[in-house]
Amino acid sequence: MSGVLATLQSLVRSSSRASWRRDGYLELEDYGALGDGRSVVLSGADGSIDWWCVPNLDSPPLFDRLLDPEEGGRFTITPDDAFEVERCYLPDSNVLQTIFTTANGRARLTESLNSGTAGRLPWAELARRVEGLEGRVSFSVEMRPGRRANGASPYHSQIGKHAVFHVGSVLGLFLHTDGFAARPADEAIKGILTIAQGQREVLAIVAGEGEPLVVPSLADIDDRIDVSDSEWRAWASRVEYDGEHRSAFIRSVLALKLLLYSPSGAIAAAATTSVPEGISGPKNYDYRYAWIRDAGYTIKAFLTAGAHAEAKAAFTWLLKRLDEQGTRVCYTLGGERVPGVTEIEVPGYRQSQPVRIGNVATDQHQHGIYGDIFETASCFVACGNILDPASAEQLSHLADACADAWRKKDAGIWELEERQHYTMSKISCWQALARAVELADEGQLPTTCRDRWARERDRIADWIEENCWSEGRQAFVFYPGSDKLDASLALAVRFGFDGRDKLEKTLDAIDAELGAGPYHYRYSGVAAEEGCFIACTFWMVEARALLGQRDRAEKAFIAVSHALDRGVGIMTEMADPKTGAFLGNLPQGLSHLAHVMALDVLSHRDAC
């Protein structure tokens, strides 16, 4: 297997500062992600932090150069001269290391969104340590708060001996050791930092919103970089995986951990908004919310990795949302209804418009939520856990709702505007009722409606066989009467849907029509609008392996691994099959969890 998503990956490039950014933008694969269980930072390979929502994942961004290259907020520590970069995460950690080499010297940048020995800090603390390794390296430093799409005008004030910056209701400090000196200004703090061999400097931001601001010492901040690294390594050491690709497995599980919003237990789909699925196209969405589908799949991935505390927190959050808000497609990280879409007046990544906050999926219905919730409950129980009576009753009512609703059209797994009898949606309803029956037989659910669930399960299977199979295509089609294909049908193998021969033929048809190099498009007809969906390829790998086609599965896995071997192990939602460029929001939970599940199946381990 290639080195994809391993703990040591390097970008090695010699270039001028300007040539790193085409039209002001970095390639998405040039970003690494930092996190503290509350928010996520995107740090570019040229030393520029281009995205950070403070204090939470779904807060307005303090740094937004990702979407506004000229006027967006950023925190840069970039060599003045042409430089080469070697970059990697520290082993089994979400602490990021970058080594810059210029004609005059080498320096190491170590970055962390810090935590403490007791877990997440009650404030946001972004720490950047710069160390001289050889000779001298001169860096240009700029800390420029964002303007919230011109909705806030940043300014500084002197409070005691501290220069405090204000952006709306966010209050922050830019702290640094004596080797860097600059005077604060409202728009930005700028200066030069020259690092000699053996020299060590720390630059940091401490921030909060609507709360008193803690002023830690730089020595403590510096120490917490190592504490954070130690805590990440301790957590990763408990990950259960005994396959040959442990480093790759852990890298994806660590990426998923970044998306777990610890104040509530919610799992964000991604850490960004409006990064386009196709450059210059309109498919730019806000993924800083918790989808039932993504949460369910991620919980399963956490259980697979033995991260039972994270899985339990996320599952409890999911059940509480169902009780409070009903069966919505997605929720805010705090558990509320996702707001409708608002467009923001910033240029967007590579001028891709519109830039959005909010998501239209909040008002959709997708039958897939039934299958996702019951698959999560089934996996939770299969790992030796027990459902409480209130949760069991709630799930029982959900099974009743599924038994009544499955004949209706819905928006489907891909959240499409056209409501249809999507085949995958019907399979998800079959999956929900199949798991409900199994849970009832195990004593985890009330058995009052067990026989009714079983009868509806069988009716759904018969309906799919009668209406969704195409003899001409030799495949299950997107929806009855269509000749289109849907790559998500690969998940039917994981769900245990009957019909091995037909599922194998469906996979072959998907490969033939939706395959593009090592990747796959989501469904027929989208190649002109977006890139290939990374998770779909891993779902295909998993399905092949589950069907006993191990050689084909491993060959496909190696191919996509080589294609993804472009950065430090952070995956986006999509990739351009022609150029290899990453597309879509990042880090993308669905891509990483599909990678985890594919690796798990290839290792011959059980689901738990």
TrEMBL record:
Record-linked Pfam families: Glyco_hydro_15 (PF00723), TREH_N (PF19291)
GO MF entry, a single one: hydrolase activity, hydrolyzing O-glycosyl compounds
Span of domain Trehalase-like N-terminal: 28-102
InterPro entries, alphabetized: 6-hairpin_glycosidase_sf (IPR008928), 6hp_glycosidase-like_sf (IPR012341), GH15-like (IPR011613), Trehalase-like_N (IPR045582)
GO process terms (BP): carbohydrate metabolic process
Highest taxon of the lineage: Bacteria
Domain GH15-like span(s) in chain numbering: 244-542
Protein name per UniProt: GH15 family glucan-1,4-alpha-glucosidase
